[in-house]
Write a structure and sequence with these properties.
alpha+beta, Aminopeptidase, 9-stranded mixed β-sheet, 7 helices
Amino acid sequence: MGIIKSHDITLYGGNDAYQIILRPLSDEHLPYLYKWNSDPEVLYWTEGDDVGSYPPEVVQEIYGGISQNNLCFLVEVNGRAIGDCWLQKMNLPNVREMYADSTDVRRIDMMIGEKNYWGKGIGTLFIGMLVKYAFECEQVDILHCFCEDYNIRSRRVWEKNGFTLIFKEEIPQPHKGKLQYHWKLTKDEYDEHRFAHNDAICSPPKTICREA
């Protein structure tokens, strides 16, 4: 029995400079996950707590658990694996309580593990692909996502994909972040912008969703 529960969804997109494929995450990608999750500089931006590195058994536990009921993808840019992202059912009770029980609320989490791909707008592109898939293929009602105040790049990703900052909450100290930002985008908001611009918000025209 494998560690990561895979799926059959592959997403294609990008722009003239970066051809992006979001592939189903699987056990064959574990060496990348071990590498990225052992780099303190990468984890500084992806983890709320100060974490130096995660050993392989913890990486297996994290991805093996999250993949059981959620969609996890390997991010490939111009043929190279550079990170991963998840479309996850909302798992925080305090956030779930904000919405009706029948509302399909998801969150998106991401990691760019290859540091020479930071600061190039790639995160905005592939998150745009995942937003498009969530609303147009999964029929998600609301995306509710997070970043902390020190992570300016993450904040720009949500802003550029049409999310609204709905509130900030203080983080108990000591902690490297002082505030956690909550970002929201509804299907109605997404559709309004998509129809107004004849495309998805900040999503490249070549982005499609189909089975692998």
